[in-house]
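Quick start: load a record and inspect it. Here is Endolytic murein transglycosylase:
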Amino acid sequence: MLNKLLKWLLVFLLAVIAAVAALLFVPKDNGKTYRVKVAKNQGISSVSRKLADDGIIYNRHALMLAAYVTGMHNQLKAGSYRMPAKTSAWDVLQKLRSGRPDTVSVKIVEGMRFATMRKIINETESIRHDTASWSDEKLMVEIAPDVPNRNPEGRFFPDSYEIDADSSDIQVYRLAYKTMQRELGAAWDERQSGLPYKTPYELLIMASIIEKETGHPSDRAHVSSVFKNRLAIGMRLQTDPTVIYGMGSAYQGKIRKADLRRDTPYNTYTRAGLTPTPIALPGKAALEAAAHPSTEKYLYFVSRMDGTGLSQFSHNLDEHNAAVRKYILKK
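Running the structure step on this input writes:
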């Protein structure tokens, strides 16, 4: 009688084990991918309940049992984990066990305008677009409430930023802003003596102009010297990218003589000194060039128009006119 009871008990245990194994290892086809979102300090109990409620796994108790057996129940790392359309409870557990939440990369390029940066972030998939409807001013108040100038142009460092999937887009802005603060601060602290910039913000403005005016990396320090030398003698910067920025949506790919004469706060042909704000997002090299112009006494430059992106630099107007005849007029 005892042997028969043990036999039936064994059969029962094997059936339970088989059932648990099926619930744990048999994939469930959910028809589409799914994201498991684990909050900070969230345990396996609430995660498994959400998975079961959403119909992603067959049974939450099988997942919890496996988690406790493997010691995973209190080792969950916060983040968002992407699961394939066909997955098992064991697959979910292994994904969580890896402790590597999915991330999203956002690439911001040097010379880009802030408006373009916002467009890229707003179109980035797999993140929350919490700031999409905000004005630029509201965004700046949220990120840097103590900064009186609420214009965001130039204040965000161009780079690639990685954030957890399903996290807020404001994280990208905060990372880019903090990075620019750090890079600009370093450039300002290490700047060359005798520069005509009173504040780090003025250096940032100049870096943005250098970023837009430079077609070849080796020219940056010379372009910087041209603008520094012009400022030093009270000469207007007379740089086309600032005019283009001031034209806004009116710019259609070409600057006319009338555009150069039309006064805007950004027209450096009609106004002396720096523009009121940066005109783009400058990168590290442009910041360094603004802080360390070459020692040449250049006052002019013109593109060589040879496909290299290089410019020809001149010390005076006669040299510049000769360069224009050679490279632009081809005489």
